[in-house]
UniProtKB/TrEMBL annotation:
It comes from Auricularia subglabra (strain TFB-10046 / SS5). InterPro entries: Znf_MYND. Keywords: Metal-binding, Zinc, Zinc-finger. The keyword Metal-binding applies. This is MYND-type domain-containing protein. The lineage of its organism: Eukaryota, Fungi, Dikarya, Basidiomycota, Agaricomycotina.
Length: 364
């Protein structure tokens, strides 16, 4: 049967701008649950995904999705649930979203006649969204409390998604969190948490297999990238403390033309960062007699960030030079706790503003 008809009309969210927290949540949820981790690779072109999100929300009204969901259309139920979970394009309604998702991905799908089941890809994505929703419920009172029942539900739906051959970032994140809690061993679980082990965690074999496979892949990728960066570590990240802009190719950054040695040559994402960092970098670039860059440049890897400018547009500084720039965001919802966003059309200032906005949402 289709889910119950929702009495309340969908409330349209008029703001589809970057700074709108609901839009950010919408993009993050889609990235966590709709894209296979192997394709997403924790690497997000924000301009592309924002454009797709705006097109999706404006191209199909919430009222139209609701009509489809009321009529039992699985994909409409899934897409409406994403809007209800994030409040983007509709008023937030977590309970309503969960009901829609369970219609698409029921607890016992094999008991349904094949003609009544959702298409495989739709069912898999509904399972991944259910996993994300229950993981958010499980951790919303952290660090004071974790809802263990919700955590197990998150794992169950993550396993169901993986069983259907779909492994988005949320599946890996749930597995990683459980591994950190000791869920792969009864002895480790009870030693860490002081509560009896739930043997059902060991039964989520599809989730664990996907997690182990991805860990091996990431270790190989990090090793290869590490060898490349180790040759010239300062060539791939902006030297300005707290900036955070990185590049996969040296040509994307500006090279200091001063006298600093080649092995520690400073590179910058913009003239603004180079100017702001000159006071700190000058002694290393033009050391006095008897000094070296190593002795006068202790702040090269400082983590202090400049304070964000609340009055600056979040995507201020679009560029068309074709250079790909990236920035790493602390995002607990991703498998590695980090999310890299990249763009060939956003300048350094825009990327930093996106980082600050996403981290603010992740911490709220």
């Amino acid at each position: 049967m289709p889910p119950r008809k929702m009495n309340s009309a969908a409330k349209t969210d008029d703001s589809l701008e970057w700074a709108n927290p609901n839009m950010m949540e919408f993009i993050q949820l889609k990235m966590r649950t709709f894209v296979a981790a192997a394709d997403a690779d924790d690497h997000l072109d924000f301009m592309k995904h924002h454009g797709e999100a705006v097109k999706e929300i404006t191209g199909r009204s919430t009222a139209s999705l609701k009509a489809g969901a009321d009529g039992g259309v699985h994909v409409d139920s899934l897409n409406l649930a994403v809007r209800l979970l994030t409040g983007c394009g509709a008023a937030k309604d977590v309970d309503g979203a969960l009901e829609l998702l369970l219609f698409v991905a029921p607890i016992l799908p094999d008991e349904l006649p094949q003609q009544r089941r959702a298409p495989r890809g739709v069912e898999a994505r509904a399972n991944s969204v259910l996993s994300a929703a229950w993981m958010d419920i499980a951790t919303r009172e952290m660090p004071k409390h974790m809802d263990m029942d919700a955590l197990r539900r998150a794992a169950k739906f993550a396993n169901s998604a993986a069983a259907l051959g779909f492994v988005p970032p949320v599946v890996l994140f749930v597995a990683k969190r459980l591994a950190e809690l000791g869920a792969r061993s009864a002895a480790e679980w009870e030693a860490r948490l002081g509560v009896p082990y739930d043997s059902r965690y060991g039964e989520f074999e599809h989730m664990w297999e996907a997690f182990d496979r991805r860990v091996e892949e990431m270790e190989a990728e990090l090793k290869a990238q590490g060898k490349k960066v180790a040759k010239r570590p300062t060539s791939y990240c902006c030297a300005a403390p707290g900036c955070g802009i990185t590049a996969t190719k040296k040509a994307a950054l500006l090279r200091c033309s001063g006298g600093c040695p080649a092995e520690t040559k400073a590179h910058y994402c913009s003239k603004e960062c180079q100017t702001a960092d000159w006071k700190r970098h000058k002694p290393a670039c033009r050391p006095r007699k008897g000094e070296t860059a190593a002795t006068v440049d202790p702040g090269l890897n400082a983590e202090t960030r400049p304070a964000p400018d609340p009055g600056r547009p979040i995507v201020d500084g679009l560029v068309n030079d074709g250079k790909e720039r990236s920035i790493v965001i602390d995002d607990p919802s991703m498998a590695g706790g980090k999310l890299t966003i990249s763009s060939r059309t956003m300048g350094p200032a825009a990327l930093r503003n996106i980082r600050d906005a996403v981290e603010k949402i992740s911490l709220s």
